Amino acid sequence: MSTRSRALRLLDDLAARLAPTTSPRPRSDNPFAGLFPWELRSRASLDVPRRAHGVDTQYAAELLDFAGVCAFSRAIDGALAAQCRHAADSLAGEVRAAVRAHSLDPDDPVQSFRFDGAYQRGPGRVDLRDHEAMGRPPFDHESLRGEAAWMPLVTRVLGEGARLLWRGVVVTEPNTPEQPFHSDGPLVSKQEWRKRGVAVGETAAAPPHSLIVFVPLVRCDSRGEVRPTSFLPGSHHQVTANALQAETVEAGCSSGAGMPAVIDAEPGDAIVFDMRTHHAGGANTSRERRSVLYFTYALPWYDAEMQRELLGSAGLVQRGAAPAPKLTPAPPT
Question: Do the bridges between strand 290-298 and strand 210-216 make them parallel or antiparallel, or are there none, so unpaired?
Answer without folding.
Answer: antiparallel
